[in-house]
């Protein structure tokens, strides 16, 4: 395969964030390849991954600096990249897969470059968030990417309970080892009947999308050994739950003279909501 020689001077000075494939190597954009071929300095979350991607597409490094930049070395690597920018050079940064800054390193670098007065540009492309939303079948006009849920059980439940009333599709990343625990906590906080989707290995050979209620998904993955990258999407809350202020006010009034279970039952019936969902909300309010 013939290599594309770097052609200096075609990329304007500044920091260029490059989206890279989340699976299929051919998903990279032509503009991203142009930047990789001609930027003065390259930086990557994983230099081996970027080198391999460049080799696949015949893009030569050509003696240019390739600097590792990730969550664990930012304090030492960031000054090197800022120095290159200060010299008027073009710096291209790629996370290991997908779009930089979306659950990937790059935020501190981007903010520091902006504060120093440098140009910051994006070469858009692959994103697991948008790929999952596209194939999910859930509403896409409003969505919230919430990243990874906390690892500890108590923190995870609080985190999910805050997301449950959202009138938007909620998108989470999760480790395959923690998927079953997450689905169980989602049933408890969002309700067993909330529609949801689990996407696994998007754009890769064993890509899989599983749709259903949270109860159905919990059952489907209960006995499975899950591997690969996971994206979980939750349908927006029912319209009536969008008025969470009214719901909380009714629960607080009911909790004055009633036990949590009884208060939840009364309010659920008056709002026409699932008793389990309202009980979880009442339980949280009673603990505040």
From TrEMBL:
<comment type="function">
    <text>Catalyzes the 2'-O-methylation of the ribose of cytidine 1402 (C1402) in 16S rRNA.</text>
</comment>
<dbReference type="InterPro" id="IPR014776">
    <property type="entry name" value="4pyrrole_Mease_sub2"/>
</dbReference>
<dbReference type="InterPro" id="IPR000878">
    <property type="entry name" value="4pyrrol_Mease"/>
</dbReference>
<keyword id="KW-0808">Transferase</keyword>
<dbReference type="InterPro" id="IPR014777">
    <property type="entry name" value="4pyrrole_Mease_sub1"/>
</dbReference>
<dbReference type="InterPro" id="IPR008189">
    <property type="entry name" value="rRNA_ssu_MeTfrase_I"/>
</dbReference>
<feature type="domain" description="Tetrapyrrole methylase">
    <location>
        <begin position="15"/>
        <end position="217"/>
    </location>
</feature>
<dbReference type="InterPro" id="IPR053910">
    <property type="entry name" value="RsmI_HTH"/>
</dbReference>
<protein>
    <recommendedName>
        <fullName>Ribosomal RNA small subunit methyltransferase I</fullName>
        <ecNumber>2.1.1.198</ecNumber>
    </recommendedName>
</protein>
<dbReference type="InterPro" id="IPR035996">
    <property type="entry name" value="4pyrrol_Methylase_sf"/>
</dbReference>
<keyword id="KW-0963">Cytoplasm</keyword>
<dbReference type="GO" id="GO:0005737">
    <property type="term" value="C:cytoplasm"/>
</dbReference>
<dbReference type="GO" id="GO:0070677">
    <property type="term" value="F:rRNA (cytosine-2'-O-)-methyltransferase activity"/>
</dbReference>
<keyword id="KW-0698">rRNA processing</keyword>
<keyword id="KW-0949">S-adenosyl-L-methionine</keyword>
<feature type="domain" description="RsmI HTH">
    <location>
        <begin position="243"/>
        <end position="285"/>
    </location>
</feature>
<keyword id="KW-0489">Methyltransferase</keyword>
<dbReference type="Pfam" id="PF00590">
    <property type="entry name" value="TP_methylase"/>
</dbReference>
<comment type="similarity">
    <text>Belongs to the methyltransferase superfamily. RsmI family.</text>
</comment>
<dbReference type="Pfam" id="PF23016">
    <property type="entry name" value="RsmI_C"/>
</dbReference>
């Amino acid at each position: 395969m013939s290599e594309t020689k770097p052609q200096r001077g075609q990329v304007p000075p500044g920091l260029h964030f490059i989206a890279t494939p989340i699976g299929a190597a051919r998903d990279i954009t032509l503009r991203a390849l142009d930047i990789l071929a001609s930027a003065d300095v390259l930086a990557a979350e994983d230099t081996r991954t970027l080198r391999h991607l460049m080799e696949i597409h015949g893009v030569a490094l050509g003696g240019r600096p390739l600097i590792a930049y990730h969550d664990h070395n930012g304090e030492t690597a960031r000054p090197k990249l800022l120095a290159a920018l200060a010299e008027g050079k073009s710096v291209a940064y790629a996370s290991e897969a997908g779009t930089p800054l979306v659950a990937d390193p790059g935020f501190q670098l981007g903010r520091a470059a902006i504060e120093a007065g440098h140009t910051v540009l994006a070469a858009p492309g692959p994103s697991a968030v948008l790929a999952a939303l596209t194939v999910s079948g859930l509403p896409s006009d409003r969505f919230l990417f919430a990243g990874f849920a906390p690892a500890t059980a108590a923190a995870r439940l609080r985190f999910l309970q805050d997301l449950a009333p959202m009138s938007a599709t909620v998108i989470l990343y999760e480790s395959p080892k923690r998927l079953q625990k997450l689905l169980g906590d989602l049933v408890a906080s969002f309700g067993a009947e909330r529609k949801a989707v689990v996407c696994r290995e998007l754009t890769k050979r064993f890509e899989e999308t599983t749709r259903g209620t949270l109860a159905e998904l919990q059952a489907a993955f209960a006995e499975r050994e899950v591997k690969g990258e996971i994206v979980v999407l939750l349908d927006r809350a029912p319209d009536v739950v969008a008025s969470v202020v009214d719901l909380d006010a009714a629960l607080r009034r009911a909790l004055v003279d009633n036990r949590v279970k009884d208060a939840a039952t009364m309010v659920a019936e008056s709002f026409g909501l699932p008793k389990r969902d309202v009980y979880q909300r009442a339980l949280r309010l009673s603990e505040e």
